[in-house]
Each structure stands twice: as C-alpha cells, then as structure tokens.
UniProtKB/TrEMBL annotation:
Gene3D superfamilies attached to this UniProt entry: P-loop containing nucleotide triphosphate hydrolases (3.40.50.300)
Alphabetically ordered keywords of this record: Kinase, Transferase
Taxonomic lineage: Bacteria, Pseudomonadati, Bacteroidota, Bacteroidia, Bacteroidales
Gene source species: Paludibacter propionicigenes (strain DSM 17365 / JCM 13257 / WB4)
Stored SUPFAM superfamilies: P-loop containing nucleoside triphosphate hydrolases
Protein name: NAD metabolism ATPase/kinase-like protein
Keyword presence, ATP-binding: no
InterPro entries given in the database record: NAD_biosynth-regulator, NadR/Ttd14_AAA_dom, P-loop_NTPase
One of the Pfam families matching this protein, by short name: AAA_28
C-alpha cells in the first residue's frame, strides 16, 4: 500500500481531494485531526496542543505502517510537514519526536495543493493572505524529504483529474 500525503496551505481543497481520491481508488483516508482538535478548544491553541496534534498524526501513521490494507493507496489529509511548519512559525521550536518521525520517511509521495482556489474563511483557518508563502515553505520541506511530489492545480473536477494523473505518473 502506498502512503500518500495531501498537503498545502489552508483552503486549497485538501480534504475534498483526499475524500475523492479515497472513493475513486476504493482506499482508506485519514482525516485531518488538527481541525477537529482546534475546533473543540475554548482558548487559542498552545505549543502543547500542537504537540498533541502531532502525536495523534504519528499514531495514524503507525497504524498504517503496521496494518497494511489490500488497497493500493492510503490518503492522508495533511502530514507532519504542516505541523512542523506551524511549530516553527508559531513557536519558533520543533519537538524532537516530530523530527524523528519525519526522518523515518513514512510517506511514499506527496500531493501538494496549490493555492489556486478561492480562500474560504472559517473559524479555524488562518493566514489566508499568506497562502503562497506557506505553499513555498511546504514545497521546500517536501523537497528536503527527497520523496516524490506533484503540485496539484485546477478547479472543480479538473483538480481531481490532475491528482489522478499525478498518481499515475509516479513511479512506485
């Protein structure tokens, strides 16, 4: 089973794409835990909150590392690269456990969603005006992993078609 991370700035269609690809390939997908976690906070998130989010992400990764499915893919709606960037951006420090997991090389490939969709604000989204900045940061982080990645663009059905084409182009 190939492990695919779908990442990108906020409001770039990651969740919709993860769901659509999972349905198309009859494969499992892992929702973004951070969204649910932050939505349920009564105060602004803290360093410890982001640690909890990272630990849950690692738990999901460990599950799929130890429980292969017959499906060709498993799709993750986000990964620790995004968490690493938020640790760095918000707190100027990154926990060692997160770096260790990133260095394990869990994912086989990344689909990096471009910020070419309109910004849709909601209570937990931040920095809509900085999506290009974060897109470039995520791209650099992916490149450091030396893993395959494809930038996904397009609106509506075209975004999904581009993602399918991207997956078909990757050499697994």
């Amino acid at each position: 089973m190939f492990k695919i991370a779908i990442i990108g700035p906020e409001s770039t269609g990651k969740t919709a794409l993860a769901k659509q690809l999972a349905e198309y390939y009859n494969a499992p997908w892992v929702p973004e835990y951070a969204r649910d976690y932050v939505e349920n906070l009564t105060n602004p998130y803290t360093y410890e909150d982001v640690c909890n989010i990272a630990l849950k992400q690692i738990e999901f990764e460990k599950f799929y590392e130890n429980n292969a499915s017959e499906a060709k893919f498993v799709f993750f709606d986000t990964d620790l690269i995004i968490t690493k960037v938020w640790f760095s951006y918000c707190f100027d420090k990154i926990p060692e456990f997160l770096l260790d997991q990133l260095h394990s090389g869990f994912f086989d490939a990344y689909l990096l969603c471009a910020p070419d969709l309109p910004w849709e604000p909601d209570p937990v989204r931040e920095h809509g005006e900085d999506r290009e900045y974060f897109f470039n940061w995520y791209k650099r982080e992916i490149e450091e992993t030396k893993k395959a990645y494809v930038i996904i663009t397009g609106v509506g059905d075209q975004r999904m078609k581009n993602a399918i084409t991207a997956l078909q182009s990757l050499k697994f």
